[in-house]
UniProtKB/TrEMBL annotation:
The chain crosses the membrane at residues 7-30, 50-70, 77-96, 102-125, 137-159, 171-193, 255-279, 294-314, 326-346, 352-373, 385-405, 417-438. It holds the Pfam family Sugar_tr. Belongs to the major facilitator superfamily. Sugar transporter (TC 2.A.1.1) family. It is found in: Membrane. Keywords: Membrane, Transmembrane, Transmembrane helix, Transport. It is a multi-pass membrane protein. Residues 12-446 form the Major facilitator superfamily (MFS) profile domain. It comes from the Bacteria. The keyword Transport applies. This is D-xylose transporter XylE. The keyword Transport applies. It comes from Orbus sasakiae.
Length: 468
């Protein structure tokens, strides 16, 4: 029996997870800044959507192309490069007075987020022992939603007690610039973690790989694991040549990749990012106060953090399918009732309570569940490319939602008819579709080794089930 150096593993994964904190922080900081910067730049509803979705467009590019950088220069080096891009984006978007430059800086930041969101779980998965890999990946997700909670508190603190004119002129700048703090912290701590041992083996840095593997466990186990990793790269030499069109041209690969893309898109269509990006704007429909709506977003962040923490304890016991289907029903009910409170103009704590419950249910089910499934449903030969396609689909749907929501939320007819609740009804319908899709196409994957995942994923296909 080998014994892992748990303290060392947790330390390294915690530092790597700080990149996830920056991801969550930067992705959500716009929620508090969008109202004042909309007034500052005098934006139309379409331009307001562009101010948010521009970063997500960058995410699509970053997630799609980061594989080349991570393979050529290393996982840790790529994370450090993304961190530098985020710092440039934070400074540039905070000081500019030109909206077109603001958009360019936000796209740059989005490219960095796309890089981080792909490479962070890749690094942690390659570094962690297989028997605790799920919990370490869950740690990254927990830290990411922690970043979202922190940014809600920071945004509220910056705006609290300040006159409206100051928030419009300077407040949103401080909100965007505050991303620098976690970026600087990660930059210093990243020098303390090693490069991925798997990447070192791939680049024939064998001694560096052995040094890291030995620190993770012991010399005997490290040598055994090193031999397995070395053999896997020899056996998969042809696999590494698989690209985008190779995946989509193979019927079985295309089928599984389509499932991954649909899961990624459905996670976005639950409506979670409407709350993350536009929570103050959405809540202002019922509170009438920008500072009050900023304060209430803190409760959404707390619910997200608590929900992911609960998910860490149950997802390997309850199973992915059951958790996602129950989550779909719970989210749907909360969204429908929340839409009714908007429609009937019910003010007070009921609307925010319903939205908090929605976020809690989402965090327990779809938040961690979707990311975990995208990481485990693909066969070894297509995993890297298929994950890139799925994350690109996730960010593309994210960008469309961010672009369309302010146009719906400021549409005179929709506001007069639904009083701001129409987007919630669209998301509720998406949750119902998600309930059906998961039950129809997704088999249970808990406890299934990655080497045996393909026939399991094909088991619900009428075309491939008998052949697999």
């Amino acid at each position: 029996m080998h014994k892992h150096n748990i303290n060392y593993i947790i330390s390294v994964c915690s530092i790597a997870s700080l990149a996830g904190l920056i991801l969550g922080y930067d992705a959500s900081v716009i929620s508090g800044a969008i109202e004042p910067l909309t007034e500052y730049f005098d934006l139309t509803p379409a331009e307001c959507g562009l101010a948010v979705s521009s970063a997500i467009i960058g995410c699509i590019l970053g997630a799609y192309f980061v594989g080349y950088l991570a393979d050529k220069y290393g996982r840790r080096t790529t994370l450090m490069l993304a961190n530098i891009l985020l710092m440039i984006s934070a400074i540039g978007s905070a000081i500019t007075d030109v909206f077109s430059l603001f958009i360019l800086y936000r796209v740059l930041g989005g490219i960095a987020i796309g890089m981080v969101s792909t490479v962070t779980p890749l690094y942690i998965a390659e570094f962690s022992p297989k028997d605790i890999r799920g919990r370490m990946l869950g740690l990254q997700q927990l830290v990411m939603v922690g970043g979202q909670l922190i940014v809600y508190i920071v945004n509220f603190t910056i705006a609290k007690g300040m006159i409206h004119e100051w928030v419009v002129e300077f407040g949103w700048r401080w909100m965007l610039a505050s991303v620098l703090l976690p970026c600087v912290l990660f930059m210093f701590l990243s020098f303390l973690i090693p490069e991925s041992p798997r990447w070192n083996v791939m680049k024939n840095h064998d001694q560096k790989a052995m040094d890291t593997l030995t620190k993770i466990s012991n010399q005997l186990h490290a040598q055994h694991l090193f031999n397995e990793i070395k053999a896997s790269f020899v056996d998969s030499a042809k696999v590494n040549k698989i690209g985008f069109f190779s995946v989509l041209s193979n019927a079985k690969s295309r089928y599984i990749t389509l499932i991954g893309c649909t899961i990624a898109v459905l996670q976005q269509l639950t409506g979670i990012n409407i709350l993350l990006y536009y929570a103050p704007s959405l809540l202002k429909n019922i509170t009438g106060s920008n500072q009050e709506s900023l304060f209430q977003t803190i409760f959404l962040g707390i619910a997200l953090f608590v929900g992911v923490f609960i998910a860490l304890r149950f997802i390997d016991n309850v199973g992915r399918v059951k958790l996602l289907r129950l989550g779909s029903i719970g989210c749907c009910l909360c969204l429908i009732i929340s839409a009714l409170t908007f429609y009937f103009n019910i003010i007070g704590y009921l609307p925010i309570t319903l939205l908090v419950i929605f976020v809690l249910i989402y965090a327990i089910s779809w938040s961690l569940g979707a990311w975990l499934l995208i990481s485990e449903i693909f066969p070894n030969r297509i995993r890297a490319v298929a994950m890139g396609i799925s994350f690109s689909a996730m960010y593309l749907s994210n960008a469309l939602i961010a672009q369309v929501f302010p146009m719906m939320n400021q549409n005179d007819w929709l506001m007069a008819t639904f009083n701001g609740g129409f987007p919630l009804l669209i998301c509720a319908a998406s949750c119902l579709f998600g309930y059906w899709f998961i039950g129809r196409f997704l088999p249970e994957t808990k406890g299934i080794s990655l080497e045996k995942i393909e026939p399991v994923m094909l088991s619900k296909s009428k075309r491939f089930a008998a052949k697999s």
